[in-house]
Amino acid sequence: MNPPAHLEPVARDPGKLRRTAWFLVAIMLAGGWLVLMAYQKWAARQSADDRPAVIHRIRKERDLRIIRQDGKTADLFDLRGHVWAVHVMDLRDPQASPRSLAVMKRLAAKYSANPDFNLVTLAVNPVPAEQAVATLADSARAHGMNLPQWWLGTTEASTLHKFITNELKASVYPHEAGGVWTFDPSIVLIDREGHLRRAVVPQQRGGQPYVAAFDFDMAADWDREGRKSGTGLSNEAELELLLEKTITELLDANAR
What we know:
Layout lengths: L13 H35 L4 E5 L7 E4 L4 E3 L7 E7 L8 H13 L6 E7 L5 H15 L6 E5 L2 H10 L8 E3 L2 E3 L5 E3 L4 E7 L8 E3 L3 H9 L10 H19 L3
Parallel strand pairs: 4-5, 5-6
Antiparallel strand pairs: 1-10, 2-3, 2-6, 4-9, 7-8, 9-10, 10-11
């Protein structure tokens, strides 16, 4: 089909085309600059944000039922509405996790007057059912784990170990080899809604903040390696201060 005779092709104006192209380039550059500025402002806010990070949430259907040092059966979900710290211990060898146990004892003393804060110690090694209550009671007395503030408990080994790995997000599945238990010695912090929380440390030079697990064995390794915390304190001492700060923030955030 031929076009009508009276229609003629428009002659191109190179000057107009160049001006249009430069106009479009200017718009793209301005838009890119605005996006970059918005990102930098967002990144600056993020790098200075030290609110405790949410790692996971323990839901009721994935709760853990334990037998405690008083012989009663209790669900960890019963602590919903409280802030609580939990760690794992080998009842036969408390020195397998001496740092986290020592920190837990100091936390018990520091927050002894706050009914909204609890501690939980889970016994990683299996305890025969007929000996469970007596063993737990003896260990609780030896370490000052006093109810109602501090629960010491255990349950069927495979159930417990799966909970530690899947819900407490342990770095290693608890297991025994040659009579020695291997497990993650970190202290895990849980808020009132069942969220696992970790400290957030803004970076002095910007960039994404560091999310710190409360692993005092790792902090001790850093001290042995000569790595500096940047605060004048040892890495262990600095991590304990971060833990206390995070606990206080979580308690104050939803104070009743």
